[in-house]
Write a structure and sequence with these properties.
By secondary structure, the protein is of the alpha+beta class. The chain is built from 5 helices and 6 strands. Helix content is 32%, strand content 18%.
Amino acid sequence: MREDVMRIRLAPAAAALLLACGKSDAPDAKTPALSSTAAPSAIAGRAGCPATGRWAQCSILYRLDREGLAPRLDSTAKPEEKRLTAQSFVVKIGRFATLDVFVYADSIARKTDAARLDTTEFVNGTAPQTMRRERTLIVNNNLVALLTSLDARQRERVSDALMAGAPQPPAP
């Protein structure tokens, strides 16, 4: 009786193992293979989102998604920060966190505009928040992002994802 129970419990695992081992390593004839000279958009992770070395909306969403944060673009929301003038959008992360994102043409424009911010109102991604519950300031290349979240782990993950840098163009 005990052996029968063990066989019943192990049968699904054995079937899955057989199916996994039965797959061929050869590429599907219907799927085109990527060459070593892949287009920049393939490297950035999404079609139409070229890897230029600068942040774009699509590369930000892709990077947050790769981090497992399940970002959702909120097309109806406006960023809280009124002192910054760049192209902006709001991303919802989880149930309560929001990320106000400002994307500039280059890092010089970002530096000029970000100088308007009072940095004492913000903390970086790894610094603990105080009782004032400061927003997290993330600055990288042509990007300024302001995260509103009380979850220290989430703040760190968002900061790490964006501080890793924008997708770079392929080497010549």
